[in-house]
From TrEMBL:
PANTHER family: K(+) EFFLUX ANTIPORTER 3, CHLOROPLASTIC (PTHR46157). The chain crosses the membrane at residues 19-39, 45-64, 73-96, 102-123, 135-158, 164-186, 206-224, 284-306, 318-340. PROSITE patterns: RCK_C, RCK_N. Its main location: membrane. Keywords: Antiport, Ion transport, Membrane, Potassium, Potassium transport, Transmembrane, Transmembrane helix, Transport. It comes from Alteromonas stellipolaris. The lineage of its organism: Bacteria, Pseudomonadati, Pseudomonadota, Gammaproteobacteria, Alteromonadales. This is Potassium transporter. Gene3D superfamilies: 1.20.1530.20, NAD(P)-binding Rossmann-like Domain, Regulator of K+ conductance, C-terminal domain.
């Protein structure tokens, strides 16, 4: 563990992924160097549990709606890349005399790319949502899906040898259909009820333990049918991926997944044969170069079938030319079942380590290399052909041209107010620009894009997407260009009000509270309240950041998603008995600020005191109305009644 911690810290400082650090730690701790573990295979079961949690997390992130939305790229370029690359890398070892079963596994392992490294690097570079990266993400999405058949096939290939691979795969398919149908049925009818009941208990430990139990039970079920444990974990994650508990599940499982996955890669490093690496060093280097060239060409060829932009295709291919972490999973599993030898597995791991180490540099320069290949720099700006008038002033910049942004644009157009929109969706930008809308393609959080929209001359910058962190980046970028610019941010709820105002927003509009205000206005109007008083009340609520719209009395049917209770605000009536700890105390002497709750009212002798005097002394049978986050309200009640 000490070696792993030190390795991760060192690799982080030189901007290399943690996966390489774990592999390096495994090599050091392995039997050929420090020999800290005489029998590293003893750690295999625990490390395989790490694979289970990795696949469970992958299942949580696997989204059928996202798959459908990106189907043209996923099932076009993704399928083409996987089939072409696997076929090429299967034929090479087969021609050198390897068994067909081993050749197929090698071909599949080399065809995969690193989802973890590519996504993380793209996020840090701020290019995750551009066209080129989205093409790469589509291919990665299908590659992640393609891992599952290999996990099914490896145990069966080991059992059948080379006699009947078709029979083995057919048997795996039938078993897989049965297990998938069973687990999907359980996921649809049983698991939502289980997690709903557990969420009501508000016990963090029970939620975490149940998550771990379900992942392991699903893995155990598939293992019982002769399939991979990782397959069951993936299916369990996919079942829960569309539920309201998805993000909490992912947060709960991440510490276990990261620790056990680190252990898995350490065991992979232990199995690396240093002699194989040393004696085949130049072969490995040449193999990595050939691997990268072939993978780039295969991505370009697959993209050509669906007529994808050449610049995007070359750039995506350069991003995906490494070997992925799932390649190590497949190689380790195949070695365990005897489909691959230790030497063959060591070659794959060695090539993977070298290709992963080159990935950050390749991604940083992927567009440069792609432009040199295409020799046409103008294609990169295909979406930004909109010419913005530099004399345009007093306009509105709309960041995000989705449903809300388009609605705002229509109203501005009716009033004759100029606007420019910025959006990251290439299809939406293409459609709207063809209709004559002034829309720029780009990331609104980048200063260059904001400058292109003349934000320094704009009357207002409106952020319409409900992504608080990205909205803060837009605010920061805008104020770096013009610190006097007015920025208005739209959110769905008011959880992020203080954070957005602190970031520099001039106005934050939460949809839920504004919708409530409009409903209240209509109710007051029908109740006979003068319109002037209604408008005054609405202005006061907005100025007070919707103070009177916060908090509600919970009931038995109140739906609370796990992980959101700390964002809600409850109102609770505390009945003070004669023996209450706070009896005889003045309201001002009770540190409600430290408890982080507010006093909303006091009822005494059946009469409500709306704004109780802080000098008021609490008496028996008083009802103190407090408001705050659920857990804080519970603690405050216990403090008032019991003194602890």
């Amino acid at each position: 563990m000490f070696i792993a911690v030190c390795s991760v810290a060192i690799f982080k400082r030189i901007h290399l992924p943690p996966i390489l650090a774990y592999l390096f730690a495994g090599i050091l701790a392995g039997p050929q160097l420090f020999a800290l573990f005489a029998h590293p295979q003893e750690m295999h079961l625990l490390a395989e549990t790490g694979i289970v949690f990795l696949l469970f997390s992958l299942g949580l992130e696997f989204s059928l709606p996202k798959l459908v939305a990106m189907r043209s790229l996923v099932f076009g370029v993704g399928v083409g890349q996987m089939l072409l690359t696997t076929a090429v890398f299967t034929s090479i070892p087969y021609l050198f005399g390897l068994p067909i079963s081993a050749s197929i596994i090698i071909g599949g392992a080399l065809a995969l790319s690193s989802t973890a490294i590519v996504i993380k690097q793209a996020t840090e570079m701020g290019i995750l949502n551009n066209r080129r990266t989205q093409l790469a993400v589509s291919i990665l999405l299908f590659q992640d899906l393609a891992v599952v058949p290999f996990l099914i096939a490896i145990p069966l290939l080991a059992q059948s040898g080379e006699v009947s691979i078709a029979f083995a795969l057919g048997e795996a398919l039938l078993k897989g259909i049965f297990v998938i149908a069973f687990l999907m049925s359980v996921g649809k009818w049983v698991l939502p009820w289980v997690f709903r009941e557990i969420a009501k208990t508000r016990t963090d430990e029970l939620f975490v333990l149940t998550t771990i139990l379900i992942a392991l039970l699903a893995g155990g079920l598939t293992y019982y049918f002769g399939l991979s444990m990782a397959l069951g974990a993936f299916l369990a994650g996919m079942m829960l991926g569309e539920s309201q508990y998805k993000y909490q599940l992912e947060a709960d499982i991440r510490p276990f997944r990261d620790i056990l996955m680190g252990l898995f890669f350490v065991t992979v490093g232990m199995q690396l044969d240093i002699n194989v690496l040393w004696s085949n060093f130049f072969t490995i280097v040449l193999g990595v170069v050939g691997l990268m060239i072939i993978k780039i060409l295969m991505v370009r060829m697959a993209a050509a079938f669906v007529k994808t932009n050449p610049l995007d295709a070359w750039s995506a291919g350069i991003k995906l030319c490494q070997i992925g972490e799932f390649s190590f999973v497949i190689a380790a599993l195949a070695t365990t079942y005897g489909v691959l030898t230790t030497g063959q597995s060591s070659l794959i791991v060695s090539m993977g380590v070298l290709s992963m180490a080159l990935t950050p540099w390749l991604m940083n320069n992927s567009l440069v290399f792609a432009k040199r290949i295409v020799a046409n720099k103008s294609e990169d700006n295909a979406h930004n052909t909109l010419i913005v008038d530099n004399d345009l002033t007093n306009h509105v910049v709309i960041c995000g041209f989705g449903r809300v942004g388009q609605s705002v644009a229509r109203m501005l157009k009716m009033e004759g107010i100029a606007f420019i929109a910025i959006d990251m969706d290439p299809v939406r930008v293409h459609e709207s620009r063809n209709a004559g809308e002034p829309v720029l393609f780009g990331d609104a959080s980048q200063k260059d894009i904001l400058s292109s929209a003349n934000v320094e001359k704009a009357k207002l910058i409106l952020v319409t997407f409900d992504q608080p962190d990205k909205a803060k980046q837009v605010i920061s970028g805008t104020h770096q260009i013009d610190n006097t610019a007015d920025v208005m941010v739209r959110t769905k709820r008011d959880y992020q009000l203080d954070g957005l105002y602190s970031a520099g927003a001039n106005q934050v509009v939460p949809e839920l509270q504004e919708g409530s205000l409009m409903l209240i206005s209509q109710v007051l109007h029908y109740a006979g309240v003068p319109m002037s008083r209604i408008l005054k009340r609405v202005r006061a609520e907005r100025k007070g950041r919707y103070d009177h719209l916060h908090g509600f009395y919970p009931g038995e049917t109140t739906e609370i998603s796990y992980g959101t209770e700390d964002k809600l605000e409850f109102i609770h009536a505390v009945v003070l008995s004669e023996h209450a700890a706070c009896m005889g105390s003045k309201i001002k002497d009770i540190d409600f600020a430290r408890m982080r709750v507010n006093v909303r009212g006091l009822r005494r002798n059946g009469t409500e005191v709306k704004d109780p005097d802080h000098e008021a002394v609490l008496q028996p049978h008083d009802v103190l109305v407090i408001a705050g986050k659920p857990r804080r309200v519970e603690r405050a009640e216990r403090k008032l009644l019991e003194g602890s």
